[in-house]
Design brief:
Layout: E1 20-26, E2 29-35, H1 37-53, H2 78-87, H3 100-108
Antiparallel strand pairs: 1-2
Length: 111
Amino acid sequence: MAKTTTVVLVDDLNGDPADTTIRFGLDSREYELDLTDKNAQELRGLFDRYISAARKVSGARRRSTAGPAKPAFTAVDPAAARAWAKGKGIDVSSRGRVKADVLAAYRAAGN
């Protein structure tokens, strides 16, 4: 058995069948209204005075005050860590992962 779902937009002001959905923002909040063409035109008319005097903002609307997350540690070049370890007489494999204690010593040495 087949089913068909129909979505009918209804004007949020008067209950008539809506023609369009209007999105707008105010005070860092976003809003949507389903409106008839007549009510949408009326809303746009109300905003015209303010929009003509406003500055247009582009890009992301919200900005974080915390800033970007920083990694717990900076990545280490394994080849540089191996060369340093070999120069210090520390046994280190020539391939694969560098052991955590070797990397810790490398970082502690200011590298």
